[in-house]
Amino acid sequence: MEEIDRISQLPEDVLIRILSLVPSKEVARAKLVSKSWQNLFEFLPSFTFEFLLPRSPSHEDGTEDTSSFINGIDSALKLHKRFTLDRLQLNLDLDLIGSGSRSVIDSWIDAALGRKVKQLDLCFQCHNAGYYFLPFEVFGGRTITDLRLEECRFEICGDIDLPALRKLCLRRIRCENQAIQKLISSCPLIHDLKTSFCSGMQRLHVSELVNLRRLSVSRCYALESIEIDAPSLQYLEYHHGSLQCDLLLITPCEFLRELILYDRFITEDLFQNLLSGFPNLELLKINDTRLKWIEISHRRLKRLDLTLGNLEAEGILKIDTPNLQSLTYYGCRMPLISVISSLNTSSLQEVNINFINSDDYRHFSILHSKEFFEMMKHCTDIKLTLHIKSKRELIIPKRLRPILSPPVYDIKHLHLLVYNCSRYQFMIDRLFWMSHPQILSFSRGTKPGFLKVLYNKLRNKEESPKCCISCTTKCWQHYLEDVQIDGDESRAEIDRIITATELSNIVMKCVVRFKLKWRS
Question: What does each C-alpha distance from 516 to 357, 414, 432 come to in angstroms?
Answer without folding.
Answer: 30, 11, 11
